Structure formats: structure tokens, C-alpha cells
Amino acid sequence: MDYEKKYPITQSPGEYLLIQWTRGYKQVDVYYDNELMGSVNGSAKLVKGTSFTSDLGLITLKLSEKPVTLDVIVDGYHSPVNVSHPVKELKAMSMYFYTIIAFALVAGFVEIGIFQDWPEALLIAVGVNVVVFILYLISVLFVREGKPWAYYLGFCVFSFCTLISLWLLLSGMIWGFMLCVFMAIRFGGMVLLIINLKTANAAAKHLRYKQPVFDDLLDSKL
Fold this sequence. Notes:
- The chain has 222 residues and is an alpha+beta fold.
- The chain has 7 helices and 9 strands, in the order E-E-E-E-H-E-E-E-E-H-H-H-H-H-H-E.
- Strand 3 and strand 4 form a beta hairpin.
């Protein structure tokens, strides 16, 4: 074997798997408490992901993308050092909310323009847009820190605004080509946020356990 690395076990604080592998991940051995749990021959299996049973439950090995490193999942829980750990993927989703904030600002200015001759409605529109902007800002700041509740907050606010906009269009209170375009964009955003709810849920699941801290987890040559 050419390299080895310790992979902490999320649901078993203080314990870890020791993974040893050759160059190109042609052979990978998995050890727990100095006992060989299983071996994988051929990197093609790791690209697709391969699993085997053990005393710890189902152990899954999979090569991540960008960068190409080995991810280890024990009984449904990612090791904290995995590149594809749900909390790390959740942090990356903050870019969605940056986009949503930009979209909300444009939509807000359009709404203000629509109601500029209707003072009462204009006041409500301005107030609502300010509150929505603040909530989105909270979402993006804490999603960036890997907080699942912030994703749920942003999702709920976006869903509520989408429903209100749809009701206004269907009721005929507001209308126009650009508003229809905005609604189509909103539906696309809803689909994207719904698809990625699974990542937020997975992050929440993993955060039930305190993340262990190890000082010697980096790859090392044997």
C-alpha cells in the first residue's frame, strides 16, 4: 500500500476506520481496530461506489469528484473528512440564495413600480420586500455556515413568495409578460430547492452528532 488515512466514524465519537490504498486506488483496504474489514480491487468500482457489510454496519466507499478523493460512509453516515459530506455540500448551496437575493431585489423593484400609483399597496409592497430581503440574507449567511435550519427558512420564504405571486397572477390583480417570466423562474427555483432538500435533511441528520477532532487525519505515505 502507498497511502493511508484515518476516517472518523460520525456516530462513534473517538473511533475511526483506517484506509490504506495504492496509487490510483487500484486496491483499497479498510481496517477497524487493527482488523481488516474489507478490500476493494479496481478503481472502477469506487467511481460507481461499492459497499460491504461489517460489524459496524454497511460500509460504502466512493470516489468523490473535484477533487478525486475517497469518501467513506458507515451505516448511512459520512465520515466528517469526506469531500462530499452533506454539511460541506450544504455550505456550497449558499450560492443558490445569493442568486435568490439578486432575483428578489429585481422582483421587488418591479413590484414597487407596479404599485407606485397605489400608495396603500406600495407601502405594503415595500414593507414585505424589506422583510423578505432580510430573511433571505439570514438564510444565505447561515447556509454558508452549514446550518440546515437556514436552508429551511430560505425555502419556506421562497415558497411563500411564489404562492403569493401565483395567486396575484391568477386573480388578475397584476399581469404582464415580465411577471409571467418571473413566475417561470420562480418555478425553476422551487424545483431546484426541493431537489436539494435531501442535502439539508442529510446535513441535519449528521449534525445530531458532535464532529470529532483528530490531529493526524491527512494522507500519509507508508
